[in-house]
Amino acid sequence: MTGSIAAIGMGIAVIGAGIGIGNIGSKAMEAIARQPEAVGDIRSSMILMAALVEGAALIAIVVAFLVA
Amino acid sequence: MGKKFILIKLVIVALFFGSSLTAQQHNHDHSGHHHDHSSHDHSGHHHDHSGHDHSGHDHSGHDHSGHDHSGHDHAAHDHGSHGHHGPVCGVAHDDTFDAGKTAFHHISDANVYSIGPLQIPLPCFLYAPGTGWDVFMSSKLKFDKIGHGDGGKAYNRYVLDGGSIRRVKDASFPMGDVSISGFVHQDDGYFVCHNNKLYETEAKSTADGGLFGGGITSFYDFSLTKNVTSMLIVTFLLSWLFLSIARRYKERDGMAPKGAQSFMETMFVFIQDEVAKPFLGAQYMKFLPFLMAIFFFILGLNLFGQIPFFGGSNVTGNLGVTMVLGILAFLVTNFSGNKHYWEHILWMPGVPAWVKTILTPVEILGIFIKPLTLMLRLFANITAGHMVIIIFVSLIFIFGDLGNNMGAGYGTAVASTLLTLFMMAIELLVAFIQAFAFCILTASYISAAVEESHEPH
Predict the structure, then answer these.
(1) Judging by DSSP bridges, how do beta strands B153-155 and B118-121 pair with one another?
(2) What is the DSSP string of B251-280?
(3) What residues of chain B lie within 8 A of the CB of A55, using their CB?
C-alpha cells in the first residue's frame, strides 16, 4: 500500500512542476511574440528556468521512489 | 514530395514488422523464460499445469541437452506439501507479464551486450573478499546466444541471471564450474536452481543506491559492462570525430567548413556563444573545454542510447554516471569559487545577523543540492524516455495476453509502433535539450562562483 501513496505524492509534485513549466512556457511565448528578435536569449533562459523547476519535481519523484 | 512520402511509409511498415517480430521473440521468451524446465517433464506430481499454455511456444530453440533431468530423485520430494509455500525449484511460478519488471530489466546495466536478440559476451572482473579476483568472459557462464542472457552454469558461486552477474549467498554452494538448471524470481528474492534445490542470490553489484536492484553486496563487480562498453564506443567515436575535424581546420585554414566540420561547428559555436560567453564573460576560455566535454559526452551517449536494437544502453540514465558528472561540476564550481562567492554563502553581506543564521545553512545546502539536481535531472529524463518506449512496446504483450490473443497483439502492435515512433522523435529532442540544460546550468553555477562583486566597495 505504501507504493500507491508514494505515487500520489509523486503526482502532486508533478502537478506543481507542470504549473511552473506551463507558466514559463506561456510567458516565453508572449515575450517572443512581443520581441521576436530576442528569441535566442528567451529560449535559452526558458530552458534554464524550466530545468530549475524540473529539479524540484525530480527530487520529489526520487524521494517517492525511495520510500516506495 | 511523393518520393518522400513513400519513404516514410516504407519506414513505418519496416518498423511495424520489426516490432511484431520482436513481439514474437519476447512472447516466446517471457513465457518460457524463467521457468525451471525440469518441471514440465513430470506428469506424475501434483502441480496443475493446465493453466500454462505452452503449446503455442516453440521450445526447440532452447538447448536442453545441458540439463540433466534424469538424475533428480523426485520420489524423495513431497511436492504436495510445499507446492504453494514460498519459492520452490521446479514450480512454474507467476506466469503473468510484468511490464514494470521488464522495463527495469531493459534499462539496467548488464554483463552481456545485446544487439537485437543476439547476446554478446563481455569480460567480467569480479572481486570478492576471501576468494579474490575472478576474471573471465561472461560466455563462461554458458548463456544462449539468442535469448535473455540466463546462464546455464555457475562459476565460483557467480551466476548470470538475466544478463547480470549475481553471487549465490549460501557459502555451501560448490565452487568452480557447476551446472544450474534455472532461475526463480520472487518478491522476496532471486533464486537459482541447482540439484533441484533453491539458492538465493545477492543483488547485482552496482552503485545505484539500490534503485535498480543493486546495493551493498559481498562482491565487487568491476566488469566491462554494457554501459562501460557503450561509453568506450562513444568516447572513441567522439575523439575520432573531433581529432579529424581539428585536422581539417588546420588543412583548410581560412576556407569555409565542409561536411561534418560544418555540422559540428554549428553546435560548437552555439555552446560557445549561447552558454559560455553570456555566463562566463571574459573568463569563458578557461571553462570552455570542460563545458564542451560535458555537452558532447552527454549528447553522444544520449543519442547512442536511442539507437534501436543496438544495445539501447541507458548510460546517461544511470545514476552512477550522472553522479560522476555532477561531482565534476561540483568540483569545478567550488574550486574556482572566489572570495566573493564564499562570502555570499557563509556570511551574506547586507542582511541582518538573525537572517544570516537561517540563510547560511540554506546556502551551504544549496552547494550540494545544485549538483544533486544536475545528477537527477539527466538520470530521470533519460531513464523516463527509455521506460516509456519499453512500456509502449510492452502494451503489445499486455493486450496480446502473452500470445493467447494474437489478434489484439497485432492490433496493438500498430498503435504501439506509432506511439513509439512519436516517443523516439521526442526523445531525440530531449537528448539535445538535456545535454544543453546540463551544460547551461553548469555554466550558470560556475558563473555564480567566479563573478566579481557588482556593488562598489
Answers:
(1) unpaired
(2) HTTTSPP-THHHHHHHHHHHHIIIIIHHHH
(3) 373, 376-377
Q: Which residues of B touch A59 (CB under 8 A)?
A: 372-373, 376
Using CA of residue B189, residue B193, residue B198, residue B203, what is the dihedral sign?
negative
C-alpha closest to that of B160 among B144, B145, B181, B138 = B138
CA distance linking residue A20 with residue B165, whole number of Å: 43
Q: Is the separation of the CB atoms in B442 and B329 below 8 Å?
A: yes
**Tens digits of per-residue pLDDT, B259-307?**
778 888 888 999 998 889 888 888 888 899 999 999 999 999 999 988 8
Neighbours of B128 (CB within 10 A): 18
Asked whether the ipTM of the predicted complex exceeds the cut of 0.90, the reply is: no
Distance separating alpha carbons of residues B447 and B300, to the nearest angstrom: 25
Q: Looking at the partner chain, which of A40, A47, A59 has a beta carbon nearest the beta carbon of B376?
A: A59
Query: Cα separation of B434 and B298, whole Å?
Result: 8
For residue B6, the one-letter residue type is: I
Helix (H, G, I), strand (E, B) or coil at B155: strand
Q: In terms of Cα–Cα distance, which of B63, B439, B127 is closest to B278?
A: B439
Range of the domain at A62: 2-67
| Nearest beta carbon to residue A48 from set B373, B380, B441 | B441
Domain residue ranges in chain B: 35-92+110-224, 229-450
CA distances from B25 to B95, B184, B377 (A): 17, 21, 34
Per residue in B181-205, pLDDT (tens digit) is: 878 877 777 888 888 788 888 877 6
d(CA A12, CA B60): 50
Nearest CA in chain A to B275: A44
The partner residue sitting opposite B211, judged by closest CB among A52, A55, A65, is: A65
Take residue B108 and report the three cell numbers written for it.
539496467
The total number of structural domains that make up chain A: 1
Distance CA B286, CA B441 (A): 17
Candidates A59, A61, A63: best to mutate against B (most CBs of B within 10 A) is A59
Yes or no, beta carbons of A55 and B436 under 8 Å apart: no
Sign of CA dihedral B424, B425, B426, B427: positive
